[in-house]
Amino acid sequence: MSEGAWFHCFSGIAGDMALGSLVDVGADLVEIRKLCERLPVGGWALDAEPALRGGIACTKVVVHAEETSVVRTYGHIAAMVEEARLPGRVRTRALRTFEALAVAEGRLHRRPPEQVHFHEVGALDAIIDIVGTAAALEVLDIDVLHASAVANGTGMTRAAHGVLPIPAPAVVELLRGAPTYGVDIPVELTTPTGAALLAANVASWGPMPAMEVHSVGFGAGTRELENRPNVVQVVVGRAQERTVPGQPVVQLEVNVDDATGETIAHAIARLLDAGAHDAWVTPIIMKKGRPAYTVAALCDPALVAQVSSVLTAETGSLGVRATTGERWPLARDASEVEVHGYPLRVKVSAGRVKVEHDDAARVARRTGLPLREVISLAEEAARRGHGVVNLPSGDAPADGQDDDTA
User: Fold this and answer.
1) What is the mean pLDDT of residues 115-140?
2) pLDDT for position 49
3) Dihedral over Cα of 357, 359, 363, 366: its sign
4) Which of 4, 19, 127, 388 has its CA 20 to 30 A from that of 248?
């Protein structure tokens, strides 16, 4: 079972609050500093101090950095993270966070993410907050992140672009699809840095998941609030077995040693047409050393007769065995994006975009682009929410290269 962390954002979240909560829960500050020092930039120091917010003992982290007029681009910061040779998960989490910020700011200012100039987020303290949080998660060996609904204040705040409403437009954009709510407090409770850390790394949203709690920590916000402690809570523990009843399913199987690959491939397609949730093939060795295959299908109990009939008919098996069970599918949204005018189906779930392979292959044939590039463009369109990605004008699709219908 994996080690997980749940952020309770009842007073919002900021980058320093997230990092402070992880230090408070036990992440070694010296180890965090060592990882952040791999960044090819100096002029900063990271400290932590005990604090009290609304009667709750917590940790306040402070990044001491020289104020400069340097405005860094997303590309500049991404190059810094790549150059730092950080551990894999630290690099991935940090890059995902900066990318989420760049995409959100790009949408707001109508420019490509790589051209986005970071102002507050490009400052050294924000960079250390983000990389430091990713480093702290690694020090604690956190595999998966969860978060509660995120609180937002109200009113106005001053930023590099001028006076902005609270929640800031970037925060609203970053938390698109996440559960959020407003509270009548004239303070910026959730910052773009905090929102980006959640949007880029959280696997699920909602109440605290079932876990064996190991430790609890609190990260302090800068100011005291009148009617609530200005902290973010983090709960670290080992995931427990699911206690919520799952969706009933039946797994049907047959062993075959006298079917061709083409026959088995056709059987898989027919099983899916018959309503199976999934179907697959596993190579096995049967008695007397005969190579064979197990053909399996997962289906709803109501479709057992229908699916098992197809399974035996298409494989020629003289019988079928069944195992009952449950499954817990993650929530996902089915939508459609366009790449250079061609539609592709995509499935979007927490932290992942999956492009329909057949659609991507069809577009790759019609445009002449590599399949992996088509998939990347479709994922980009889905993440931005634009639904459309156009190729450069010189990359016109090839005509008459595909007989498939759109």
Assistant:
1) 82
2) 96
3) positive
4) 4
Element holding 197 (H helix, E strand)? helix 192-201
Question: What's the pTM value of the predicted model, to 2 decimals?
Answer: 0.61
Whether residue 228 is found in the same domain as residue 320:
no
Question: Is the torsion defined by CA of 9, 12, 18, 24 positive or negative?
Answer: negative
To which residue do tokens 């007769």 refer?
305
Cβ contacts of 402 within 8 Å, gap of 6 or more: 362, 365, 366
Query: To which residue do tokens 């949203």 refer?
Result: 205
Cβ–Cβ < 8 Å for 61, 47: yes
Are 253 and 358 in the same domain? Answer: no
Task: Kindly state whether residues 220 and 278 are assigned to the same domain.
Answer: no
- Asked whether residue 385 falls in the same domain as residue 320, the answer is no
Q: Look up residue 54 and give its DSSP letter.
A: T
Question: Does 155 lie in the same domain as 29?
Answer: yes
> 378 and 316 in one domain?
no
Helix axes 371-384, 357-367, angle to 10 degrees: 120
For residue 69, pLDDT beyond 70: no
pLDDT for the residue 239? 84
